[in-house]
Amino acid sequence: MSQLKDQMNIFLSADEIQNLVQDIARKIERDYAGSEVVMICPLKGSIHFIADLMRELKLPQTLDFVHLTSPKGHGVKIIQDISTEVENKHVLIIEEIIDAGRTLSFLYQRLLASNPASLKIVTLLDKPARRELSIKPDYCGKTIEDRYVIGYGLDSEELGRNYSDIYIFRN
Ligand code: IMP
Ligand code: MG
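A: This is the predicted complex of the input protein with magnesium ion.
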C-alpha cells in the first residue's frame, strides 16, 4: 500500500532529529541546574518529541498532557486540561512546531495565570514567517521556512505521525 511519504523528500532524518533533541536537552540542563521541571505536552503532535526529550533530559521531571483545538474563527477550545498543580513549579511547554502561534499563546497565558515559578517554551521546529501572535520559543531545534512537514508526530490529516524521519512535500 502506498504511503504519504512515498511522494515526499526527507527533510530531517531520525539521526538529525536526535541531534537536535540532544542539543536542546543540554541547553535546558545547563539553565535549570538540577531543578525539577514539569513537562507539558500539547496533544497530539508533540508525543514523539516529548518522549525523546524526556529520556535525553537529565533532570527530575513530571509529565502532563493538554489537548486544545482552534477551530477557524472560534478561538481556542480545551478538550482535555492538565491535572498538575503548576504553582511555584518550573514549567516547560514542549511543542513539535510553532506556526501561527494561536494555541500556544492561549496555553502560555493560561499556565502563566497559575503562577508557575517559571514558564518556558521548547519547540523542535519554528516557522516564524507564519506567526500571527507575538510568541517566541525559549529553546528551538531548527527554524524552517513556510513549508508543510510531516512525520515524527507531525500529521497531514492525521496521517504520517508514525514516520521516524520528517518529510517535506516535493515542489
Ligand atoms: P499554531 O497554534 O497556529 O501555531 O498551530 C500549531 C499547530 O499546527 C501544530 O501543533 C501542528 O499541529 C500544526 N502544524 C503547523 N505547521 C505544521 C506542519 O508543517 N506540519 C504538520 N502540522 C503543522
Ligand atoms: Mg496537526
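Residues 45, 97-104, 148-150, 154-155 surround inosinic acid (ligand 1) (CB under 6 Å). The first helix runs from residue 14 to 32.
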